[in-house]
User: Which sequence fits this backbone?
């Protein structure tokens, strides 16, 4: 992704997406009869920045690192330097709507009509836009369908709730529908009781990594990690990270299946903006989350991993 995007604060990103990637003009259609029922499937993605959960479509993966505050969901290898090019390659994005601070129907409609639509009219250049309000599984939503020169250009789905979210794509696809119909506030999701245990084990593991505490990391890991790697191997692996281990570490969310989850930890700093990425895999054993495998960034001889969950 273009480096300028990385410097923007997350609260500015929704405006960026709208300004760069959609088209202006409005035709409004109201429909409040959508009775869609959520049927979450696995894997699911839990966004820590957005506090929402959504089903990851088959053969898709989630990228939290390219543009801070946005989850890019795509299949295969994404190409292009801008979000516009990413959407052209069928990428889907999700991000919190930070300007919507109260989950009432009145405030949601006011936001859509008084903020969302004026931004489109002001910054973009087509009149071929249809907007539909709906009631989806008990919450308010709105969908903007944008065309340019008679061809689909952008779909924007806005969902209200405790944690409002925007979903953006080039056009309606089965993958987009899957995300739209399963994205839900974490408090209403099947992960609501797992969020704190997941965050706690991640905090513990990250702290052990940053402190180079290989003994604690090894002893607290799952039996399968210890069976495939000696403590000395884990110590050696951590020692090879000293060039960046003191940089800021962030985890944007986790990919979850019942009994297991995986996360990507990113190390970066102002001096070294190119992030170094760790892959972490966990399994629930005796009702506790245990580290089963990890992969270091661009370094050989790392602990052996089982197949990834997602």
Assistant:
């Amino acid at each position: 992704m273009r480096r300028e995007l990385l410097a923007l604060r997350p609260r500015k990103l929704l405006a960026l997406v709208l300004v760069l990637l959609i088209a202006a003009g409005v035709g409004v259609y109201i429909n409040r009869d959508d009775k869609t029922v959520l049927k979450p499937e696995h894997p699911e993605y839990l966004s820590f920045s957005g506090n929402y959960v959504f089903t990851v479509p088959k053969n898709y993966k989630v990228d939290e690192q390219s543009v801070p505050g946005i989850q890019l969901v795509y299949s295969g290898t994404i190409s292009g330097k801008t979000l516009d090019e990413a959407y052209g390659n069928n990428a889907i994005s999700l991000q919190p709507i930070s300007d919507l601070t109260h989950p009432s129907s009145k405030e949601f409609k006011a936001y859509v009509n008084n903020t969302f639509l004026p931004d489109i009219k002001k910054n973009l250049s087509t009149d071929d836009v249809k907007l539909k309000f709906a009631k989806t599984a008990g919450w308010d939503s709105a969908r903007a369908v944008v065309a340019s020169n008679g061809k689909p250009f952008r779909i924007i789905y806005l969902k209200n709730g405790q944690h409002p979210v925007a979903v953006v794509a080039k056009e309606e696809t089965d993958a987009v529908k899957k995300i739209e119909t399963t994205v839900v506030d974490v408090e209403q999701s099947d992960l609501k009781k797992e969020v704190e245990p997941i965050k706690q084990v991640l905090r513990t593991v990250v702290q052990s990594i940053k402190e180079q505490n290989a003994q604690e990391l090894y002893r607290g890991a799952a039996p399968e990690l210890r069976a495939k790697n000696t403590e000395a191997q884990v110590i050696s692996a951590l020692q090879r990270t000293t060039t960046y281990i003191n940089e800021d570490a962030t985890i944007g969310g986790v990919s979850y299946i019942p009994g297991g989850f995986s996360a990507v930890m990113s190390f970066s700093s102002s001096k070294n903006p190119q992030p170094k990425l760790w892959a972490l895999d966990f399994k629930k054993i005796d009702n506790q989350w245990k580290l089963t495998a990890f992969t270091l960034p661009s370094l050989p001889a790392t602990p052996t991993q089982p197949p990834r969950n997602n």
Remarks:
- Residues 249 and 267 are 5 Å apart (CA to CA).
